[in-house]
């Protein structure tokens, strides 16, 4: 028999042992002699026997699977993080199920419902950026379901592990100010979508140097990739008094901003300095290697997984929710330049 539909009865028939003995042997029970266990395991392999995790989950109430909801599958930072999460969970004996919300609440809710119907043990979720309404996630936590959000923000009663975006942007803009820049623009769609962390860091850094916020220097890109960055930079640099430095909310958008500068004969950083966010690998290899707000993705994923497994292991009521913030640093390269 060469298919994966082999049952305990098939292994029993092949070896001459009872189904109960076969079951105990496959669970490595010390009640079955080692030689017998080896014989039964060999037969199971030959028959392509796969343990029935659904049946096992009915007794253990664990499926050893985790649901991961990504906000945008095309975002390189989320792709990299999901790869690390899957790898880390596999080491711990967990499988990962993936879904993407395409940054919409409706698809996020559908993904969560699908994962619950699959009886995952817990979920890691990058919340959709388009809607800061977390009611469905708060309900999930109140229902005693293990969930960790991979984001930063105020405490909403759900576990969060994320990067302190406000501090990261504050450091980036202060770096520009320390280099002598006074007209500092920003390409950031987060604020218009309800996530004010990066924008607040930008405004606070300006205020710390006595620089007033100029709405003409803030542009929201219409998307999350290089094309959106290119056209947002086009709008920003059309300002009557254009900026000499620009903070860009992610490196992927910054790729487009660098390209716009090339296309229009502006030298980076001599004519306009740039700093991105996320420190993607590609950033180092742009025509002007990009300075960026940097953090360790592996630390972020490890902390999120550790917290989720702690919630899964809790018997009875889940422990009080916790918000864990990672403080980012600056990776300084050519694009931010030296003092004016």
Task: For this entry, give a set of tags.
340 residues; alpha/beta; Rossmann fold; six-stranded parallel β-sheet; 12 strands; 41% helix; 15% strand
What would you note in describing this structure?
The protein is an alpha/beta fold. The chain has three domains: 8-51, no CATH class; 62-163 and 297-329, Response regulator (Rossmann fold), CATH 3.40.50; 165-294, 3-Layer(aba) Sandwich (Rossmann fold). Helix content is 41%, strand content 15%. It has helices at 8-15, 19-26, 34-46, 53-60, 76-91, 105-117, 135-142, 165-178, 197-208, 226-236, 251-263, 297-313; strands spanning 65-70, 95-100, 122-125, 147-149, 159-163, 184-187, 218-219, 245-248, 273-277, 291-294, 323-326, 329-331. The strands form two sheets. It has a six-stranded parallel sheet with strand order 2-1-3-4-5-11, with helices on both faces. Helix 7 links the parallel strand 3 (122-125) and strand 4 (147-149). Helix 8 (165-178) packs parallel to helix 9 (197-208) and helix 10 (226-236) packs across helix 11 (251-263). Pfam families: LacI, Peripla_BP_3. GO terms for molecular function: DNA-binding transcription factor activity; transcription cis-regulatory region binding. Residues 6-60 form the HTH lacI-type domain. This is HTH-type transcriptional repressor CytR. Keywords: DNA-binding, Plasmid, Transcription, Transcription regulation.
Task: Write a compact overview of the structure shown.
The protein has 340 residues and is an alpha/beta fold. The protein has helices spanning 8-15, 19-26, 34-46, 53-60, 76-91, 105-117, 135-142, 165-178, 197-208, 226-236, 251-263, 297-313; strands at 65-70, 95-100, 122-125, 147-149, 159-163, 184-187, 218-219, 245-248, 273-277, 291-294, 323-326, 329-331.
